[in-house]
Amino acid sequence: MKSWAVFFIFLIWMGCSSSGSDADEPKNVAVVISTLNNPWFVVLAEAAAENAEALGYEAKIFDSQNNPATESDNFENLIASGFDAILFNPTDADGSIVNILKAKEAGVPVFCMDREVNADDAATSQILSDNYSGCVEIGIEFIKTVGTSGKYVELLGLVGDNNTWARSGGFHSVVDEFPGLEMVAQQSADFDRNRAMEVMETILQAQPDIDAVFCGNDAMAMGAFQALQGAGKSEAVKVFGFDGADDVIEKIEEGKIVATGMQYPKVMAETAAQYAHEYFNGRRTFPQRVPVEVEVVNASNVSDF
Q: What is 26-90 written as a DSSP string?
């Protein structure tokens, strides 16, 4: 009897030891990004992963390639793999909700970064740039530079992304007050540099005499600038972007692009990782939307950035 008692005590000890080992394993954090084809989102992804790792967790980056179907596959795979939290940059304000709800049902908290979804009961929290206010400031800069009359083009981002319309809305809340400013073309270029160059080249064929172009992000601003440069119009047409990407900051320093809105992806990434950390430690109540300020960068302050 004594030997059986010793045996059972040994089994119990082994079970407790095994449970303790599992508990000591670091939690896994997934970083799901809309696209890694844009340097700005690479910064967001890497900052999110680095912050999660600095807090003691393992992190892995998933690229949705701006494709809702790929994003859905990513979610299914990481939920099945047992990830403990998701730092998420959505592809679509409506279409991404179902993926967040799948994670929520599986008990996995989701913290949105930069891009918003149209739901208040899906993501644990959404950390977002104040896109509308930022583009109000860009609109003011536009009027100061271009004046109150002239022809301009607007390049929109992804039509399913709320950022696209928040930025466009902020910009138009200013420029539409001046009837002398005529928008001769408004077209989506999907937040993509190459697509923006192609779209701008086509627009220039129909509208060769424009004064300015407002782009919903800096990748499109660079694409538009390339198209204008190819057409010999880069000095005559004023380009405005939004993001604060390094290559656009350089172009502002060189006097080739007028202004951009400086977002802070590292702040959004750090906040999302910190919220995941707090969730793991028992916190359950988070603000649904956390705005992060945007600053205008132009020739007068570019040296500060």
A: PPEEEEEES-SSSHHHHHHHHHHHHHHHHTT-EEEEEE-TT-HHHHHHHHHHHHHTT-SEEEE--
